[in-house]
Amino acid sequence: MKDTIQLLDVAVLNESQPEERLQKGSIGTVVEVFDAENFLVEFADQRGIAYAILSLKAEQLIKVYSEPISA
């Protein structure tokens, strides 16, 4: 399924994680897939320096698309 989050996908956090100083809308990269519902996501600044790495569930993420839907 195309909506399935995969390794190296870009994803947006859909709920704030104040204990990690992350707000809703933060953009991260999936760096590990544990199973279809659990992922390790790295959040980095524009220089590529990681400032948070969290284990998150699929419902906490929105997969980012950079290409149009094929007809």
Keywords:
globular; SH3 type barrels; 71 residues; mainly beta; single chain
Describe what this molecule looks like in 3D.
- With 71 residues, this protein is an all-beta fold.
- It has a single domain, classed as SH3 type barrels, CATH 2.30.30.
- Helices cover 0% and strands 44% of the residues.
- It has a 5-stranded antiparallel sheet with strand order 4-3-2-1-5, with no helix packed on it.
- It is globular, with a radius of gyration of 12 Å.
Sheet bearing the most strands, described?
5 strands, antiparallel
Number of domains: 1
Mean pLDDT score:
94
Main-sheet strand order equals 4-3-2-1-5
Query: What are the segments in which pLDDT stays under 50 over at least 5 consecutive residues?
Result: none
- How much of the sequence is in beta strands? 35-45%
- What is the 3D shape? globular
Number of strands: 5
Radius of gyration: 12 Å
CATH class: Mainly Beta
Helix content estimate: under 10%
Contiguous helical run count: 0
> Which fold name corresponds to the CATH topology?
SH3 type barrels
The appropriate CATH architecture is Roll
Kindly report how far apart the N and C termini lie: 16 Å
Order of helices and strands: EEEEE
**In terms of structural class, how would the helical and strand content be classed?**
mainly beta
